[in-house]
Specification:
This protein is of the alpha+beta class. Among the domains are: about 40-210, Lipocalin (Beta Barrel); about 410-655, Alpha/Beta hydrolase fold, catalytic domain (Rossmann fold, 3-Layer(aba) Sandwich). The chain has an eight-stranded mixed β-sheet, sandwiched between helices. A five-stranded mixed β-sheet has the order 1-28-27-26-25. A four-stranded antiparallel β-sheet has the order 2-3-4-5, with helices on one face. The protein is built from 13 helices and 36 strands.
C-alpha cells in the first residue's frame, strides 16, 4: 500500500498548528492548555466527487469555523462560515452535492427563562459564496410551543430529485382563529428540501408521537418509530416500531417475536432492515425482511459483550459491518473488500491503530479514514482505492502531535465478592514502584470506557499519575446482568467495584495508599463522592465534575420534562435514594473535595453541586467549588477545560504529594 503526503495535507496541517506555549508557562500550565484544548478537527466530510474536504475547527473558545479544501486546486483551506454563539455549537456537516453542505447546530437555552432545554438547527452552506440558508423552518407567531428538534437528514440523495435532501421536521399546531391556513396537526414529519432555494414539500404528514424515521438508500421512508405520550404530555416509556413494504404507504408494526427489534437502517436492494435485539441477555444485530414473512436472521451475536454499532459508509449509508467493544473495539465487516482493506491499513500504519471509515465519495473509490489508538489522538487520511495511495490530511488534535502518550492496557481486578471487573490501566511513562494514582469512573451510568485515546487520562499520566478506569457493574456493553438495575438503584455494587479498583491498585504495588485519589465526571462524579460515603479512608482527594449528588433532586429536576416517568423509573424509589445520595452524608467525608459545574448544564443541574458544597461546608469538611457561568455539561471550551485541568492538578498535587 503506497503511503505519501499530499500537498493538501501539508497546507492544512500548517494552518492548524497550535500556538507555542509561552516561555513563562509552567509545565503544568502548558500541559493543561494543550490537553484541555478543543480538537483541531471536530468534524470532517468528503464531497461526492471526492475532490473536496470540509472540516470544522475552532478558535479554542466559543467560535466554530467551517473550512473547505479543494484537493484538485491549491489545497488551501478556505473559511466558509463561522458560528460564535456562546450557547450554540456547529457540530457537523455533510455534502448535499459538490457545492452545498448541510450543517447541524446544537444549542442550549432556558424555556420561559426557567427550564433549561437543548435544541438543534439545520442550515445549508455553499462553497460558491452564496449566503447560508436556515433549513429549520422558522416558528410561526401563531404556533403553540417551541421547536427543539430542528430536523435530521434522512437521505442526502433522493432518487430523481436533484439538489434535494430528505429531512425530518417538527410541525407545531397553530392557532386557527381568523385564518384557514393554520397548521392544525403537530408532531414529527418528513420533508423534501431543496438546499439551494430552501423550498420544501411534505412527504410524511406529522405524527405527534413519532420520534424518528429511517429512509432507504433511494430516499424512500421505510421505518417509523413512535413513543406515545400520556394525557399529561409525558412519555409513557413504550416505543413502537413500524415498517413499509416497497412502494406502500401503509405502516405495519413489528410485533410478537419482533416487538423488541430496534431497526436502524434499511437496505432497499435486499428489502431488509438492520437493527438490534436482545438475545440471551446481550444485544445482537439482526436483519429482518420487510414483507409479510418478516423473516429474522442473526448477523452477529456474542455471549460476552453487546454488539452495539452498525458500520455504514458513503452518501447512501450502505451497511458494511458491525462492531463491538471487548478489550478493544472490533469491527466485523460484511463487505469482504473493506475487511481486507481495513486489515491492510492497520498493518501499514504505525502502532496498528483502530481504523474508521468516516466518509466516501459517491462511487466509494475515495475514502476518508481516521486512524487512532491509545497513544495517537487521531489522524485523517485520504485513500484512493484505484491507485492504492494513502495520503495524510489532518491531525485531530494537532496541539498534541509532538507529545509522547502513555499506553493504555486492558486489565481485570477482583471485586470483594470475587467477580472479575474489567477496566483499563494507564501508567505514567518511565514510572517505577508505587506512584500517585487516580481511579477514574466513567459517566452514565449507562456507558462504559473503551480502549483508545482519552485526553483526561493522558493529562493525568503526563502529570505522573497512574489511572485506572473500571467498568464497574452498572456499566453498559456487557449485557443485561452486568448492567443490573443500573448504577443508581444498585449503587452499593457499583461503588463497591469502584472502591475495589482503588484497593487493587494498592495491593498490586501500583499505587501508594497515601497518594490515591478519585476523579469523575457526571455519574463518575457521583461515584467519586459516594465512594467517600462508603469508605472515607480509601482516597485522599476527591474531584467531581458536574456530579449527581442527590438522587431525589435528580428525579425532581426531570419533572418539567416529557421524560419524567423514565427518569423516575430509572432512579427508582426506596431506601437507596436516601442512602445513595452523597449530599445526605456529608458528615462521612474525610478527604478534601473539589467540585466543578456549569450553570447551563441540562444533564445534571448546577443545584446538585451547589447543594453538595453547602452540605460539606455545614459538616465542616474541606471543599472547593468552581462554577463556570453559561457552560453546559461538557464544558466544551478550551480555556475552561485548561483552567479546570490546572485546578485539578494543583489540588491533587497538594493532597497526593510525596
Amino acid at each position: 500500500m503506497h503511503y505519501h503526503r499530499l500537498a493538501a495535507g501539508a497546507a492544512i496541517i500548517a494552518l492548524a498548528t497550535a500556538t507555542p506555549a509561552s516561555a513563562q508557562m509552567s509545565e503544568a500550565e502548558e500541559l493543561a492548555g494543550r490537553f484541555g484544548a478543543r480538537p483541531t478537527v471536530m468534524d470532517i466530510s468528503l464531497s461526492p466527487s471526492g475532490n473536496k474536504v470540509a472540516y470544522i475547527s475552532s478558535d479554542n473558545a466559543t467560535t466554530e469555523i467551517l473550512y473547505v479544501v479543494d484537493l484538485n486546486g491549491e489545497a488551501e483551506p478556505r473559511a466558509l462560515t463561522a458560528l460564535s454563539e456562546p450557547d450554540a455549537e456547529l457540530t457537523g456537516c455533510d455534502w448535499a452535492n459538490d457545492i452545498w453542505l448541510v450543517c447541524r447546530v446544537y444549542g442550549s437555552a432556558k424555556y420561559d427563562n426557567r427550564v433549561p432545554i437543548t435544541y438543534t438547527r439545520m442550515l445549508s452552506v455553499a462553497t460558491d459564496g452564496s449566503e447560508p440558508n436556515l433549513l429549520t423552518p422558522r416558528r410561526s407567531s401563531r404556533a403553540y410551543g417551541i421547536v427543539q428538534n430542528g430536523g435530521r437528514v434522512l437521505a442526502l440523495d433522493v432518487e430523481g430529485e436533484e439538489n434535494r435532501i430528505l429531512m425530518t421536521r417538527s410541525f407545531l399546531e397553530e392557532n386557527s382563529r381568523n385564518t384557514r391556513l393554520a397548521n392544525e396537526e403537530g408532531g414529527l414529519g418528513v420533508e423534501l428540501v431543496d438546499v439551494t432555494r430552501n423550498s420544501r414539500r411534505t412527504v410524511e404528514n406529522p405524527d405527534e408521537d413519532a420520534t424518528r424515521y429511517v429512509a432507504d438508500e433511494n430516499g424512500e421512508v421505510r421505518i417509523k418509530v413512535r413513543a406515545p405520550h400520556d394525557s399529561f404530555g409525558r412519555l409513557t416509556g413504550n416505543v413502537l416500531y413500524s415498517y413499509r413494504e416497497p412502494g406502500s404507504r401503509s405502516w405495519t408494526a413489528f410485533k410478537d417475536d419482533l416487538s423488541g427489534f430496534r431497526p436502524v437502517a434499511v437496505d432497499a436492494a435486499q428489502n431488509v432492515a438492520y437493527g438490534f435485539q436482545d438475545q440471551d441477555g446481550f444485544t445482537a444485530l439482526y436483519r429482518v425482511t420487510l414483507d409479510d414473512e418478516a423473516k429474522r436472521e442473526p448477523v452477529l451475536a456474542r455471549s460476552d459483550v453487546d454488539v452495539d454499532r452498525l458500520i455504514r459508509i458513503g452518501r447512501k449509508q450502505r451497511v458494511v459491518g458491525v462492531s463491538y467493544a471487548a478489550e478493544k473495539r472490533q469491527v466485523e465487516y460484511l463487505d469482504e473488500d473493506l475487511a481486507n482493506l481495513a486489515a491492510r491499513l492497520q498493518q501499514a500504519l504505525p502502532g496498528k491503530p483502530l481504523i474508521n471509515i468516516v466518509g466516501a465519495s459517491a462511487d466509494e473509490q475515495t475514502l476518508l479514514i481516521v486512524a487512532s489508538s491509545d497513544v495517537d489522538p487521531g489522524m485523517t487520511y485520504l485513500l484512493d482505492r484505484q491507485s492504492n495511495a494513502l495520503s495524510p490530511l489532518l491531525p485531530l488534535r494537532d496541539h498534541l502531535a509532538e507529545l509522547e502518550m502513555a499506553p493504555m492496557r486492558p486489565v481485570t481486578f477482583p471485586a470483594a465478592d470475587g467477580t472479575q471487573i474489567p477496566g483499563y490501566l494507564t501508567m505514567p511513562l518511565n514510572s517505577e514502584g508505587p506512584v500517585s494514582a487516580i481511579v477514574l469512573p466513567h459517566g452514565g451510568p449507562g456507558s462504559r470506557d473503551e480502549w483508545g485515546f482519552d485526553w483526561l487520562v493522558q493529562f493525568f499520566a503526563a502529570r505522573g499519575y497512574a489511572v485506572l478506569q473500571p467498568n464497574f457493574r452498572g456499566s453498559s456493553g456487557y449485557g443485561d446482568a452486568w448492567f443490573g438495575r443500573n448504577g443508581f438503584q444498585q449503587w452499593e455494587t457499583a461503588i463497591g467495584d469502584v472502591n475495589d479498583a482503588g484497593r487493587w491498585l494498592v495491593s498490586e504495588g501500583i499505587a501508594d495508599p497515601d497518594r490515591l485519589g478519585i476523579v469523575g465526571w457526571s455519574y463518575g462524579g457521583y461515584a467519586a463522592l459516594q465512594s467517600q460515603v462508603v469508605d472515607p479512608d480509601l482516597y485522599q482527594a476527591v474531584v467531581a465534575i458536574a456530579p449527581v449528588t442527590d438522587l431525589e433532586l435528580l428525579r425532581e429536576e426531570a419533572r418539567d420534562y416529557t421524560n419524567f416517568a423514565q427518569v423516575r423509573e430509572f432512579v427508582g424509589t426506596g431506601s437507596h435514594v436516601e442512602d445513595g445520595s452523597p449530599a445526605n452524608h456529608a458528615d462521612r467525608f474525610r478527604a478534601p473535595v473539589l467540585l466543578f459545574h456549569g450553570t447551563q448544564d441540562t444533564n445534571v443541574g448546577v443545584f446538585q453541586s451547589q447543594r453538595m458544597k453547602s452540605r460539606l461546608e455545614d459538616a465542616g469538611a474541606s471543599v472547593q467549588y468552581v462554577e463556570y457561568d453559561g457552560f453546559d455539561h461538557s464544558l466544551d471550551h478550551g480555556q475552561v477545560r485548561g483552567n479546570m485541568l490546572l485546578a485539578i492538578d494543583t489540588f491533587l498535587g497538594q493532597h497526593l504529594a510525596d
